[in-house]
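Example (one chain per record):
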Amino acid sequence: QPGSVIFEEGDILKGLPYPDETFDVVYCAQVFGYLPPPDLPFRALSEMRRVLKPVGIIATRDGVDQHFYPRSLNLDRLWVQNFNRAVHWSDGSWSPDADSTAAIMPALFRRAGFNADAGRVRIGVGTTLYSGRETREWLAKRAESQLQQEDPLRQNWLRAGITEEEIQHTLLAVRKWAETEDAWYAALQCEILAWK
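Predicted structure:
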């Protein structure tokens, strides 16, 4: 029916239940940062390209870098570095200086078959800012929920060698950040538009 929206759940890594060249536009945000490189992001992007019609557009937006202020709470290490370490633990590629998956996105698009040399891949940047009590509280609750006993992200932290003590220290710092007047968070986003 024209004008209607249908929500369907699928696993991009197992293959989407659509034939080749189904969609005019594929959009995803904050997906690639959760996929350890190099294989999983490539598989996901290749599957997105498969279901994209000729001259269809894919748009992605993923965090490249993020910082918490005030810096004295050490959340750049406690949350940002530990999060990246947990996501990359399975391939052993993590180091504190490693690029995020989003940072390698232009090369990933080229590898997946998009013609960057012909101007069919455009890279942009954007920012995300969280400030104000309500917004800090929302972000803190999200972080706290991701580090609860039953959450898979917490299990990845533990498998990556992040100790229970470090997790508790992170939770305390996140809570203190949320309660700190004038604290804020900023993220640099890699935004890509590509044409098949």
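Caption: The mean pLDDT is 90.
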